[in-house]
Amino acid sequence: MGRFSLIWLAIIFTALFGCSRRIADSPYENQPPETHVFLDPDSSLNSTSSIQVIYWSGDDKDGLVKGFYYIWEGGAIDSEWVWTTENSDTFHLRFLGDSALFTFRIKAMDDDLLTDPTPAQLVFPVHNTLPEIKFPPLCDVPETTFTVASFFWEGHDFDGEETIQKYQYVLEDTSNPSLYVDILPDTTFVTLTEADGLTPNQSHVFYVRAVDLAGAASPFIRMPRDTNGVWYVREPKGDYLIIDDYKTEDGSGEFYRSLLDSLVGPGNYSVWDIKRDEDGTGGPDLLPYFPYSEQIVFNFTESIKLFDRIMWYADDDPNLSLAKGGLPQFKASGGKVLFTTAFSENFTNLGNLSVFSPVDSMGTLVDSMGNRIPDIWPPAVILPDSLYADTFDNLMVGTFFPWPYSAIPKPSASVLYRLQASSRWVGQPPLAVIDAGNTFYFFSVPLHKVDGLGTVDDLLSQIFFLEFGEP
Protein backbone atom coordinates (compact mmCIF):
# COMPACT_ATOMS: atom_id res chain seq x y z
CA MET A 1 0.00 0.00 0.00
CA GLY A 2 1.38 3.42 -0.91
CA ARG A 3 2.10 6.24 1.44
CA PHE A 4 -0.81 8.28 0.11
CA SER A 5 -3.29 5.52 0.85
CA LEU A 6 -2.03 5.10 4.38
CA ILE A 7 -2.52 8.80 5.04
CA TRP A 8 -6.14 8.68 3.89
CA LEU A 9 -6.80 5.62 6.04
CA ALA A 10 -5.44 7.44 9.06
CA ILE A 11 -7.68 10.43 8.39
CA ILE A 12 -10.77 8.28 8.00
CA PHE A 13 -9.95 6.30 11.18
CA THR A 14 -9.41 9.48 13.14
CA ALA A 15 -12.69 10.93 11.94
CA LEU A 16 -14.64 7.83 12.81
CA PHE A 17 -13.00 7.54 16.21
CA GLY A 18 -13.57 11.20 16.94
CA CYS A 19 -17.27 10.95 16.05
CA SER A 20 -17.81 8.00 18.28
CA ARG A 21 -16.17 9.76 21.17
CA ARG A 22 -18.36 12.83 20.60
CA ILE A 23 -21.58 10.75 20.54
CA ALA A 24 -20.68 8.91 23.68
CA ASP A 25 -19.27 11.83 25.69
CA SER A 26 -21.27 14.88 24.48
CA PRO A 27 -24.93 13.93 23.51
CA TYR A 28 -27.34 16.66 22.30
CA GLU A 29 -29.73 17.97 25.00
CA ASN A 30 -33.45 17.11 24.63
CA GLN A 31 -35.27 19.93 22.89
CA PRO A 32 -38.69 21.09 24.08
CA PRO A 33 -41.67 20.65 21.76
CA GLU A 34 -43.32 23.49 19.88
CA THR A 35 -47.01 24.32 19.97
CA HIS A 36 -49.37 25.79 17.40
CA VAL A 37 -52.94 26.99 17.98
CA PHE A 38 -55.63 28.18 15.59
CA LEU A 39 -59.39 28.66 15.21
CA ASP A 40 -61.58 27.32 12.42
CA PRO A 41 -60.15 28.30 9.05
CA ASP A 42 -63.07 30.67 8.53
CA SER A 43 -62.89 32.19 12.01
CA SER A 44 -61.30 35.43 13.07
CA LEU A 45 -59.42 36.41 16.19
CA ASN A 46 -62.02 39.11 16.60
CA SER A 47 -64.80 36.53 16.93
CA THR A 48 -67.42 37.74 19.38
CA SER A 49 -69.11 34.40 20.11
CA SER A 50 -69.01 33.08 23.66
CA ILE A 51 -68.65 29.59 22.20
CA GLN A 52 -65.19 28.98 20.77
CA VAL A 53 -63.95 25.93 18.87
CA ILE A 54 -60.15 25.89 19.07
CA TYR A 55 -57.62 23.53 17.45
CA TRP A 56 -53.96 22.97 18.33
CA SER A 57 -51.02 20.80 17.44
CA GLY A 58 -47.48 20.16 18.62
CA ASP A 59 -44.24 18.81 17.17
CA ASP A 60 -41.02 17.60 18.76
CA LYS A 61 -37.85 17.26 16.68
CA ASP A 62 -36.28 14.67 18.95
CA GLY A 63 -39.24 12.86 20.47
CA LEU A 64 -42.99 12.53 20.61
CA VAL A 65 -45.69 14.93 21.83
CA LYS A 66 -47.49 13.23 24.70
CA GLY A 67 -50.24 15.85 25.25
CA PHE A 68 -50.98 19.46 26.05
CA TYR A 69 -51.64 21.84 28.91
CA TYR A 70 -53.96 24.78 28.30
CA ILE A 71 -55.21 27.69 30.37
CA TRP A 72 -57.84 30.40 29.96
CA GLU A 73 -57.28 33.88 31.32
CA GLY A 74 -59.93 36.56 31.49
CA GLY A 75 -63.68 36.60 32.16
CA ALA A 76 -64.93 34.34 34.94
CA ILE A 77 -62.71 31.35 34.13
CA ASP A 78 -60.42 29.79 36.73
CA SER A 79 -56.74 30.28 35.87
CA GLU A 80 -55.48 26.72 36.13
CA TRP A 81 -53.62 24.61 33.61
CA VAL A 82 -55.71 21.76 32.24
CA TRP A 83 -54.24 18.56 30.77
CA THR A 84 -55.59 17.07 27.53
CA THR A 85 -54.52 14.61 24.87
CA GLU A 86 -57.03 15.99 22.37
CA ASN A 87 -56.23 18.35 19.50
CA SER A 88 -59.40 20.45 19.71
CA ASP A 89 -62.26 21.35 22.01
CA THR A 90 -65.34 23.55 22.29
CA PHE A 91 -65.29 26.11 25.08
CA HIS A 92 -68.17 28.02 26.64
CA LEU A 93 -66.69 31.26 27.88
CA ARG A 94 -68.18 32.64 31.05
CA PHE A 95 -67.91 36.28 31.98
CA LEU A 96 -69.83 39.00 33.74
CA GLY A 97 -71.12 41.98 31.86
CA ASP A 98 -71.55 42.54 28.17
CA SER A 99 -68.02 41.74 26.99
CA ALA A 100 -64.59 40.49 28.08
CA LEU A 101 -61.08 39.96 26.72
CA PHE A 102 -59.89 36.35 26.77
CA THR A 103 -56.47 34.79 26.34
CA PHE A 104 -56.07 31.12 25.51
CA ARG A 105 -52.59 29.64 26.09
CA ILE A 106 -51.51 26.11 25.29
CA LYS A 107 -48.20 24.25 25.53
CA ALA A 108 -47.23 20.81 24.31
CA MET A 109 -45.43 18.26 26.49
CA ASP A 110 -43.15 15.59 25.05
CA ASP A 111 -42.49 12.04 26.17
CA ASP A 112 -39.65 13.26 28.43
CA LEU A 113 -42.16 15.53 30.24
CA LEU A 114 -40.60 18.65 28.81
CA THR A 115 -43.08 21.42 27.94
CA ASP A 116 -42.95 24.21 25.42
CA PRO A 117 -41.42 27.22 27.25
CA THR A 118 -43.23 29.61 24.91
CA PRO A 119 -46.91 28.51 24.85
CA ALA A 120 -48.96 29.37 21.83
CA GLN A 121 -51.82 31.74 22.48
CA LEU A 122 -54.91 33.42 21.08
CA VAL A 123 -56.23 36.73 22.35
CA PHE A 124 -59.70 37.89 21.41
CA PRO A 125 -62.63 39.90 22.76
CA VAL A 126 -65.99 38.28 23.28
CA HIS A 127 -69.31 40.11 23.27
CA ASN A 128 -72.25 38.35 24.92
CA THR A 129 -75.65 38.18 23.26
CA LEU A 130 -78.66 38.17 25.56
CA PRO A 131 -80.72 34.96 25.49
CA GLU A 132 -84.27 35.09 24.16
CA ILE A 133 -87.47 33.46 25.40
CA LYS A 134 -91.03 33.32 24.12
CA PHE A 135 -94.33 31.52 24.55
CA PRO A 136 -95.29 29.55 21.43
CA PRO A 137 -98.61 30.34 19.76
CA LEU A 138 -101.72 28.85 21.41
CA CYS A 139 -99.81 27.98 24.62
CA ASP A 140 -101.83 30.39 26.71
CA VAL A 141 -103.08 29.77 30.21
CA PRO A 142 -106.91 29.55 30.32
CA GLU A 143 -108.87 32.40 31.85
CA THR A 144 -109.65 30.12 34.79
CA THR A 145 -107.88 27.08 36.27
CA PHE A 146 -108.04 25.06 39.42
CA THR A 147 -104.96 25.22 41.65
CA VAL A 148 -102.91 23.60 38.87
CA ALA A 149 -101.54 25.59 35.94
CA SER A 150 -98.96 24.63 33.33
CA PHE A 151 -96.68 26.83 31.24
CA PHE A 152 -94.55 26.04 28.22
CA TRP A 153 -91.93 28.26 26.58
CA GLU A 154 -89.06 28.23 24.10
CA GLY A 155 -85.56 29.54 24.80
CA HIS A 156 -82.85 30.58 22.36
CA ASP A 157 -79.38 32.07 22.55
CA PHE A 158 -77.49 33.37 19.53
CA ASP A 159 -74.26 32.21 21.16
CA GLY A 160 -75.63 28.64 21.19
CA GLU A 161 -78.44 26.90 23.02
CA GLU A 162 -75.81 25.35 25.30
CA THR A 163 -75.08 28.78 26.77
CA ILE A 164 -78.49 28.98 28.46
CA GLN A 165 -77.63 28.16 32.05
CA LYS A 166 -81.13 28.17 33.53
CA TYR A 167 -84.62 29.60 33.45
CA GLN A 168 -86.16 31.59 36.27
CA TYR A 169 -89.86 32.06 36.97
CA VAL A 170 -91.79 34.07 39.51
CA LEU A 171 -95.44 34.82 40.19
CA GLU A 172 -97.01 38.28 40.30
CA ASP A 173 -93.93 40.49 40.86
CA THR A 174 -90.44 40.48 39.30
CA SER A 175 -88.98 43.10 41.63
CA ASN A 176 -87.74 40.65 44.28
CA PRO A 177 -84.96 38.34 43.01
CA SER A 178 -85.12 36.26 46.19
CA LEU A 179 -88.47 34.90 44.94
CA TYR A 180 -87.13 33.71 41.59
CA VAL A 181 -87.27 29.94 41.12
CA ASP A 182 -84.52 28.33 39.03
CA ILE A 183 -85.26 25.66 36.42
CA LEU A 184 -82.70 23.53 34.61
CA PRO A 185 -81.94 24.65 31.03
CA ASP A 186 -83.26 21.46 29.45
CA THR A 187 -86.69 22.04 31.04
CA THR A 188 -89.08 24.38 29.23
CA PHE A 189 -92.27 23.32 30.96
CA VAL A 190 -93.52 23.78 34.50
CA THR A 191 -96.74 22.88 36.32
CA LEU A 192 -97.53 24.95 39.40
CA THR A 193 -99.86 24.06 42.27
CA GLU A 194 -101.10 25.70 45.42
CA ALA A 195 -97.85 24.70 47.10
CA ASP A 196 -96.03 26.82 44.51
CA GLY A 197 -98.10 29.91 45.25
CA LEU A 198 -101.32 29.47 43.26
CA THR A 199 -103.60 30.95 45.90
CA PRO A 200 -107.24 29.93 45.34
CA ASN A 201 -109.84 32.56 44.47
CA GLN A 202 -107.22 35.05 43.35
CA SER A 203 -105.83 36.31 40.05
CA HIS A 204 -102.26 35.53 39.09
CA VAL A 205 -99.55 36.37 36.56
CA PHE A 206 -96.66 34.09 35.57
CA TYR A 207 -93.25 35.50 34.55
CA VAL A 208 -90.27 33.59 33.16
CA ARG A 209 -86.86 34.52 31.74
CA ALA A 210 -83.69 32.85 30.44
CA VAL A 211 -80.22 33.30 31.97
CA ASP A 212 -77.02 32.45 30.09
CA LEU A 213 -73.60 31.25 31.23
CA ALA A 214 -72.38 34.84 31.44
CA GLY A 215 -75.13 35.66 33.91
CA ALA A 216 -76.95 37.80 31.37
CA ALA A 217 -80.73 37.47 31.43
CA SER A 218 -83.45 38.00 28.90
CA PRO A 219 -86.32 40.31 29.79
CA PHE A 220 -89.14 38.56 31.63
CA ILE A 221 -92.09 37.49 29.52
CA ARG A 222 -95.51 37.25 31.11
CA MET A 223 -98.52 34.96 30.91
CA PRO A 224 -101.19 36.05 30.20
CA ARG A 225 -99.46 37.89 27.38
CA ASP A 226 -101.64 40.99 27.67
CA THR A 227 -99.89 43.65 29.74
CA ASN A 228 -102.89 43.95 32.04
CA GLY A 229 -104.04 40.33 31.76
CA VAL A 230 -104.43 37.88 34.65
CA TRP A 231 -105.83 34.40 35.01
CA TYR A 232 -108.10 33.37 37.84
CA VAL A 233 -107.34 30.40 40.10
CA ARG A 234 -110.53 28.76 41.27
CA GLU A 235 -110.69 26.80 44.48
CA PRO A 236 -111.52 23.11 44.02
CA LYS A 237 -114.85 22.65 45.78
CA GLY A 238 -115.63 19.39 47.53
CA ASP A 239 -114.47 15.87 46.80
CA TYR A 240 -116.59 15.39 43.68
CA LEU A 241 -115.75 16.52 40.17
CA ILE A 242 -118.09 16.51 37.18
CA ILE A 243 -116.15 16.30 33.92
CA ASP A 244 -118.26 17.80 31.17
CA ASP A 245 -117.13 16.13 27.94
CA TYR A 246 -120.40 16.85 26.15
CA LYS A 247 -121.03 19.39 23.39
CA THR A 248 -124.64 18.80 22.29
CA GLU A 249 -127.14 21.18 23.88
CA ASP A 250 -129.73 18.68 25.15
CA GLY A 251 -129.93 19.58 28.84
CA SER A 252 -127.28 17.07 29.93
CA GLY A 253 -125.30 19.63 31.93
CA GLU A 254 -128.32 20.70 33.95
CA PHE A 255 -129.26 17.05 34.50
CA TYR A 256 -125.95 16.02 36.08
CA ARG A 257 -125.58 19.21 38.08
CA SER A 258 -129.03 18.79 39.55
CA LEU A 259 -128.14 15.22 40.54
CA LEU A 260 -125.03 16.38 42.38
CA ASP A 261 -126.98 19.22 43.95
CA SER A 262 -129.34 16.69 45.48
CA LEU A 263 -126.61 14.23 46.44
CA VAL A 264 -123.91 16.46 47.99
CA GLY A 265 -125.49 19.90 48.01
CA PRO A 266 -125.02 22.96 45.78
CA GLY A 267 -121.49 24.34 45.89
CA ASN A 268 -120.01 21.13 47.28
CA TYR A 269 -118.66 19.84 43.99
CA SER A 270 -116.75 21.21 40.99
CA VAL A 271 -117.46 21.13 37.26
CA TRP A 272 -114.80 21.05 34.54
CA ASP A 273 -115.69 21.55 30.88
CA ILE A 274 -113.03 19.79 28.79
CA LYS A 275 -114.86 19.72 25.46
CA ARG A 276 -113.13 21.77 22.79
CA ASP A 277 -114.84 23.34 19.83
CA GLU A 278 -113.86 22.16 16.38
CA ASP A 279 -111.40 25.05 15.96
CA GLY A 280 -109.54 24.01 19.14
CA THR A 281 -110.95 26.76 21.31
CA GLY A 282 -113.48 26.57 24.09
CA GLY A 283 -114.63 27.88 27.43
CA PRO A 284 -112.51 29.35 30.23
CA ASP A 285 -112.13 26.05 32.09
CA LEU A 286 -110.37 24.28 29.24
CA LEU A 287 -106.85 22.99 29.26
CA PRO A 288 -104.17 25.06 27.53
CA TYR A 289 -103.61 23.94 23.98
CA PHE A 290 -99.98 22.81 24.21
CA PRO A 291 -98.27 21.42 21.12
CA TYR A 292 -97.19 18.34 23.07
CA SER A 293 -99.91 16.03 24.32
CA GLU A 294 -97.93 14.63 27.26
CA GLN A 295 -97.89 18.08 28.84
CA ILE A 296 -101.65 18.44 28.50
CA VAL A 297 -102.12 15.02 30.09
CA PHE A 298 -99.79 15.87 32.97
CA ASN A 299 -101.70 19.08 33.68
CA PHE A 300 -105.00 17.22 33.46
CA THR A 301 -103.83 14.40 35.74
CA GLU A 302 -102.57 16.73 38.44
CA SER A 303 -105.83 18.68 38.27
CA ILE A 304 -108.19 15.72 38.67
CA LYS A 305 -106.07 14.42 41.57
CA LEU A 306 -107.36 17.39 43.53
CA PHE A 307 -110.59 15.38 43.91
CA ASP A 308 -111.62 11.94 45.16
CA ARG A 309 -114.63 11.11 42.97
CA ILE A 310 -115.26 11.78 39.28
CA MET A 311 -118.47 11.62 37.29
CA TRP A 312 -117.43 11.85 33.64
CA TYR A 313 -120.22 12.25 31.08
CA ALA A 314 -119.47 12.41 27.37
CA ASP A 315 -121.19 12.59 24.00
CA ASP A 316 -120.34 10.27 21.09
CA ASP A 317 -116.82 11.73 20.88
CA PRO A 318 -115.36 11.15 24.36
CA ASN A 319 -111.88 12.50 25.04
CA LEU A 320 -110.27 9.09 25.46
CA SER A 321 -106.73 10.46 25.22
CA LEU A 322 -107.18 12.48 28.41
CA ALA A 323 -109.00 9.61 30.09
CA LYS A 324 -106.27 7.16 29.12
CA GLY A 325 -103.53 9.50 30.36
CA GLY A 326 -105.15 10.69 33.58
CA LEU A 327 -107.59 8.15 34.99
CA PRO A 328 -105.10 5.31 35.71
CA GLN A 329 -103.04 7.66 37.88
CA PHE A 330 -106.18 9.09 39.43
CA LYS A 331 -107.27 5.58 40.41
CA ALA A 332 -103.78 4.74 41.65
CA SER A 333 -104.01 7.70 44.04
CA GLY A 334 -107.28 6.32 45.47
CA GLY A 335 -109.79 8.03 43.20
CA LYS A 336 -113.00 6.41 41.95
CA VAL A 337 -114.83 6.98 38.66
CA LEU A 338 -118.27 6.78 37.09
CA PHE A 339 -117.95 7.11 33.31
CA THR A 340 -121.00 7.39 31.03
CA THR A 341 -120.74 7.98 27.30
CA ALA A 342 -122.24 7.41 23.88
CA PHE A 343 -120.30 6.30 20.79
CA SER A 344 -120.36 7.27 17.17
CA GLU A 345 -121.50 4.95 14.43
CA ASN A 346 -117.96 4.02 13.39
CA PHE A 347 -116.21 4.08 16.76
CA THR A 348 -112.83 2.29 16.54
CA ASN A 349 -110.73 3.71 19.40
CA LEU A 350 -111.10 0.67 21.65
CA GLY A 351 -107.40 0.58 22.51
CA ASN A 352 -107.60 3.76 24.56
CA LEU A 353 -110.86 2.66 26.17
CA SER A 354 -109.53 -0.66 27.42
CA VAL A 355 -106.48 1.01 28.99
CA PHE A 356 -108.37 3.03 31.58
CA SER A 357 -111.72 1.24 32.01
CA PRO A 358 -112.98 -2.25 32.95
CA VAL A 359 -114.09 -2.75 29.32
CA ASP A 360 -112.35 -5.49 27.37
CA SER A 361 -114.13 -4.95 24.05
CA MET A 362 -117.14 -3.25 22.51
CA GLY A 363 -119.83 -4.87 20.39
CA THR A 364 -122.70 -3.71 18.24
CA LEU A 365 -126.30 -4.77 18.80
CA VAL A 366 -127.73 -6.93 16.01
CA ASP A 367 -131.07 -8.48 15.14
CA SER A 368 -131.76 -12.14 14.37
CA MET A 369 -130.61 -11.60 10.78
CA GLY A 370 -127.27 -10.12 11.88
CA ASN A 371 -128.23 -6.58 10.94
CA ARG A 372 -126.96 -3.82 13.17
CA ILE A 373 -129.46 -2.10 15.47
CA PRO A 374 -129.23 1.62 14.64
CA ASP A 375 -131.00 3.03 17.71
CA ILE A 376 -132.87 2.39 20.95
CA TRP A 377 -136.19 4.03 21.75
CA PRO A 378 -138.34 4.35 24.86
CA PRO A 379 -139.54 2.44 26.74
CA ALA A 380 -136.69 -0.09 26.47
CA VAL A 381 -135.65 -1.27 29.95
CA ILE A 382 -132.11 -1.77 31.20
CA LEU A 383 -131.92 -4.36 34.00
CA PRO A 384 -129.24 -4.93 36.64
CA ASP A 385 -127.38 -8.19 36.12
CA SER A 386 -128.51 -11.06 38.36
CA LEU A 387 -125.53 -10.44 40.68
CA TYR A 388 -126.80 -6.91 41.39
CA ALA A 389 -130.59 -7.34 41.07
CA ASP A 390 -131.09 -6.76 44.79
CA THR A 391 -128.80 -3.73 44.87
CA PHE A 392 -129.60 -1.53 41.87
CA ASP A 393 -132.87 -0.27 40.36
CA ASN A 394 -134.03 -0.75 36.80
CA LEU A 395 -133.30 1.96 34.24
CA MET A 396 -135.48 2.83 31.26
CA VAL A 397 -134.67 4.61 28.05
CA GLY A 398 -136.39 7.96 28.26
CA THR A 399 -134.86 9.63 25.21
CA PHE A 400 -133.94 8.08 21.87
CA PHE A 401 -130.24 7.53 21.30
CA PRO A 402 -128.49 6.15 18.19
CA TRP A 403 -125.84 3.49 17.62
CA PRO A 404 -125.85 1.56 20.91
CA TYR A 405 -122.80 -0.51 21.81
CA SER A 406 -122.49 -3.39 24.24
CA ALA A 407 -119.66 -3.27 26.78
CA ILE A 408 -117.85 -6.60 27.23
CA PRO A 409 -116.08 -6.69 30.62
CA LYS A 410 -112.49 -7.69 31.18
CA PRO A 411 -112.02 -11.13 32.80
CA SER A 412 -111.58 -9.48 36.18
CA ALA A 413 -114.64 -7.22 35.78
CA SER A 414 -118.39 -7.90 35.96
CA VAL A 415 -121.51 -6.96 34.01
CA LEU A 416 -123.57 -4.45 35.96
CA TYR A 417 -126.52 -3.76 33.62
CA ARG A 418 -128.00 -5.52 30.58
CA LEU A 419 -130.51 -4.42 27.99
CA GLN A 420 -133.83 -6.24 28.44
CA ALA A 421 -134.52 -8.97 25.89
CA SER A 422 -136.50 -7.83 22.87
CA SER A 423 -137.54 -9.09 19.46
CA ARG A 424 -135.50 -6.22 17.99
CA TRP A 425 -132.09 -7.53 19.11
CA VAL A 426 -130.40 -10.77 20.03
CA GLY A 427 -129.93 -11.64 23.70
CA GLN A 428 -129.39 -9.19 26.56
CA PRO A 429 -126.38 -7.08 25.59
CA PRO A 430 -124.35 -5.70 28.55
CA LEU A 431 -124.45 -1.91 28.74
CA ALA A 432 -122.58 -1.30 31.99
CA VAL A 433 -119.60 -2.98 33.68
CA ILE A 434 -117.79 -2.63 36.99
CA ASP A 435 -114.16 -3.39 37.81
CA ALA A 436 -113.09 -5.94 40.40
CA GLY A 437 -112.02 -3.29 42.89
CA ASN A 438 -115.40 -1.56 42.80
CA THR A 439 -113.65 1.67 41.81
CA PHE A 440 -114.78 2.17 38.21
CA TYR A 441 -118.34 2.05 36.83
CA PHE A 442 -118.61 2.26 33.07
CA PHE A 443 -121.85 2.84 31.12
CA SER A 444 -121.90 2.59 27.32
CA VAL A 445 -125.12 4.62 27.31
CA PRO A 446 -125.60 8.25 28.45
CA LEU A 447 -127.27 8.08 31.86
CA HIS A 448 -129.37 11.18 31.23
CA LYS A 449 -131.02 9.32 28.34
CA VAL A 450 -132.00 6.30 30.47
CA ASP A 451 -133.80 8.09 33.32
CA GLY A 452 -137.26 7.18 32.08
CA LEU A 453 -138.15 5.77 35.53
CA GLY A 454 -136.44 8.58 37.46
CA THR A 455 -134.03 6.07 39.03
CA VAL A 456 -130.68 7.53 37.98
CA ASP A 457 -130.66 9.65 41.14
CA ASP A 458 -130.88 6.52 43.30
CA LEU A 459 -128.29 4.81 41.11
CA LEU A 460 -125.72 7.57 41.66
CA SER A 461 -126.50 7.70 45.36
CA GLN A 462 -125.91 3.94 45.59
CA ILE A 463 -122.62 4.14 43.70
CA PHE A 464 -121.14 7.25 45.26
CA PHE A 465 -122.15 6.71 48.88
CA LEU A 466 -122.49 2.96 49.35
CA GLU A 467 -120.33 1.33 46.70
CA PHE A 468 -117.50 3.87 46.64
CA GLY A 469 -117.71 4.63 50.34
CA GLU A 470 -116.80 7.91 51.99
CA PRO A 471 -114.15 9.99 50.16
Question: Summarize this, please?
Answer:
With 471 residues, the chain is of the alpha+beta class. Helix content is 17%, strand content 33%. It folds into three domains: 94 residues, Immunoglobulins (Immunoglobulin-like, Sandwich); 102 residues, Sandwich (Immunoglobulin-like); 228 residues, Rossmann fold (3-Layer(aba) Sandwich), CATH 3.40.50.880.
What do you see in this structure?
The structure is a single chain. The termini are far apart. The protein contains 6 helices and 31 strands. It has helices at about 5-25, 250-265, 295-305, 320-330, 350-355, 455-465, and strands spanning about 35-40, 50-60, 65-75, 80-85, 90, 100-110, 120-125, 130-135, 145, 150, 155, 165-170, 180-185, 190-195, 200-205, 205-210, 220-225, 230-235, 240-245, 270-275, 310-315, 335-340, 360-365, 375, 380-385, 395, 400, 405-410, 415-420, 430-435, 440-445. Strand 21, helix 4 (about 320-330) and strand 22 (about 335-340) form a beta-alpha-beta unit. The strands form 9 sheets. The chain has a 9-stranded mixed beta sheet, sandwiched between helices. The protein has a 4-stranded antiparallel beta sheet with strand order 4-3-6-7, with no helix packed on it. By secondary structure, the chain is of the alpha+beta class. It has 3 domains: about 35-125, Immunoglobulin-like; about 130-235, Sandwich (Immunoglobulin-like), CATH 2.60.40; about 240-465, Rossmann fold, CATH 3.40.50.880. The relative contact order is 0.08. Helix 3 packs across helix 4 (about 320-330) and helix 4 (about 320-330) runs parallel beside helix 5.
